[in-house]
Amino acid sequence: MRIPLLGVPGVEGMRRAGRAAAATLAYVGERLSAGVTTADIDRWVREDTARRGGRPSQLGFHGFPAAVCTSRNDVVCHGIPRSDERLQPGDIVNVDVTTLLDGFHGDTSATFCIGEVSPDARHVVEVARRCRDAGVAVVRHGVRLGDVGAAIEELARAEGCSVVRDYGGHGIGKAMHGPPTVMHVGPRGQGVRLAAGMAITIEPMVNLGRPEVRLLADGWTVVTADGSLSAQFEHTVVVTRDGCEVTTG
Question: Does the predicted TM-score (pTM) go above 0.85?
Answer without folding.
Answer: yes
